[in-house]
Sequence to fold (206 residues):
Amino acid sequence: MSYAIAGDGTTVWGRDSLEWETGDVFCLPGGGEVVHIARGGAAVLWIVTNEPQLAFERVQAPAPRQAALEVVHYPADEIGRQLDAIHRLPPERVMAGGKAVTLSSAALAAERTCLPSMTLAMNSLGPGEMQRPHRHNAVAVTLIVQGERCYSTIDGRRVTWEHLATMITPPGEMHSHQNDGDRRALFLIVQDGGLHYHTRTMGFSY
Fold:
């Protein structure tokens, strides 16, 4: 899974390719060589894979075009439109998990994931909003996309957000997120949630 932090370009794998811009998210099946090409200057991509898990289990990704996954591209503008729609909802219609857009694929729509073992979501907080303390058994790897004067409290410790920093929330620890700024906070979250949802061990609670 990749997030375009800056710049724009093209990603090529085999005979296929896609073009991306700043703020886009895209997910590719593994098993083949992938080349990222910046267009018109430098570009920065934030990339998360399940390669360590595959290596630990001594398994290989399927050959190209044989994967159960499909290429998914989430343009930044569409992510923004979906978040705007969520922020216009009355409070009673907002899901307990927060004001987030879950990034999934048509192939895995029922599981609400883009990879069987991992979940991906662009979460958000309006100015002055807080995501109440909660815990879950999935680890959270979080990229701070936008979060001036924001912080998290993880197991009683305050963690001040830094722009484009990656924050790790250990599984099972109580944590919350607070936006004291005057702009919407955006944070991209990758979790090993697919495994936990499949085995019914997510353990989400307040």
